[in-house]
Amino acid sequence: MRWLWRLVSHNFILKAVSLVLALFIWAYVNSERSQVTEIPVNIALVTPPDTILMSKEIHTVSIRVKGPSDLIQKLPRPIEVIHRCDLEANNVQVKAQELNLPDGVKLLSSIPAFECITDRRVTVSLPVEVKIVDSPPDGYEISDISFTPQTVSIAGPASDLEDTQKVMTTEISVAGRISPFETVVMLSPPVNSEYIKIENKPVKVKIAITPVKGTKQFVVPVRIMEEEGFPFLVKSISKRKVSITISGGLPQLEKLSSEDIIVLLDVSFLNSRGDHTEIATRVILPHGFSLVGDPPRIDVRLVKKLDSQVPNGD
User: Fold this and answer.
1) How far apart (Å, rounded) are the C-alpha atoms in residues 281 and 293?
2) Which residues in 87-108 are b (16+ Cβ under 10 Å) and which e?
3) What is the Cα–Cα distance from 246 to 308, expressed in whole angstroms?
4) Are residues 36 and 105 in contact, defined by beta-carbon separation less than 8 angstroms?
5) Cα 125–Cα 131–Cα 132 angle in degrees, nearest 5
6) Shortest CA distance to 55 belongs to which of 90, 95, 98, 93?
7) Is the whole-model pTM more than 0.70?
8) CB contact at 8 A, 250 and 212
9) Which of 63, 104, 117, 295 is 20 to 30 A from 303 in CA distance terms?
10) Can you give the pLDDT at residue 20?
C-alpha cells in the first residue's frame, strides 16, 4: 500500500490543481454545448382603452430555440407574451424581441401571424319595449301596459349597436288572462353577441286586460215614480217602453237582460195638471255599463186624482 500512497502524494498539489482545472474545463465545455428544443409560448392579445377585442384573446404556439443547455433549461415554460393590437390592423405579428430570450439563445422557427379584430367600445341608452306573446281570450283585450325602467344602458362594439333602436324584454304570455296582472321579466340583448353587456335590471310590468267594449240595444218598460201625497194622477204617457243602447264589455253585455235595467219616469216635480212634454227619464244600470246617448224623454198627461173618475173628454 505504500507504493499507492507514494503515487498519490508525489506532486500532490500539482495533481490537485490539474484535477480542479479538468473539472472546470469539463463543466465549461458542457455548458457551452448547444441544444435545440421546443418551448411553448402563450401570446395574449390586448387592445387600447375603449376598444373591444372581437377575436381570440390567447394563442398558444410552439417555437424552436437553440442555445447553451444551461440557458435553455432556465427558460420559462410556457413563455408568456403580451402583445398590444393596433386598432387599424386585422393581423398582428409577434416579434422575436417580445419573447425576451436571453443572449445566446436563438429563435429558429417563425411565429405565425394572428387575427386581431377590434372595434370601438360604445355605451348607449336605449328604450325598453315589452314583448307580449299570445292573446287574451275572446272578448278581452290589452288596454294598457306600464313598466319600469323605460330605458337601459347597453355597452358593446359600435358595429353591433349603431343600428340598434330598442331593447326587448323576455316574453310575457297573456293567454287565458281576463284581468290585470303584474310580472317581472329580464332584458334580452338586442344582438346575439358575447361582447354585448347590458344592465342586469329586472323590468316590472303591469298589464291591464279588460273586456272588449261593445254596445247592445234593449227594450225596457218605463216605471213611473211619484212621491207620496202627489196630488196628480198620470193619465197617460207617450211611451210605455223605450229602446236604449248600452255600452260595456262584450262578455258582460251578453249576460245583461232588460230585467237588469230600470228606466224611471219621475213626475214628482210636476206641479200642474195637463200635458207635459219631453220629461227626461233616469236610467239605472248595473256596475260596469253606461248609457249611450241621452236618457229617453217622454210626454206625460196629469190629471187631479179627483178628476180621474171624470171621462177623458173633460
Assistant:
1) 13
2) eeeeebebeeeebebeeebebe
3) 37
4) no
5) 155
6) 90
7) no
8) yes
9) 295
10) 58
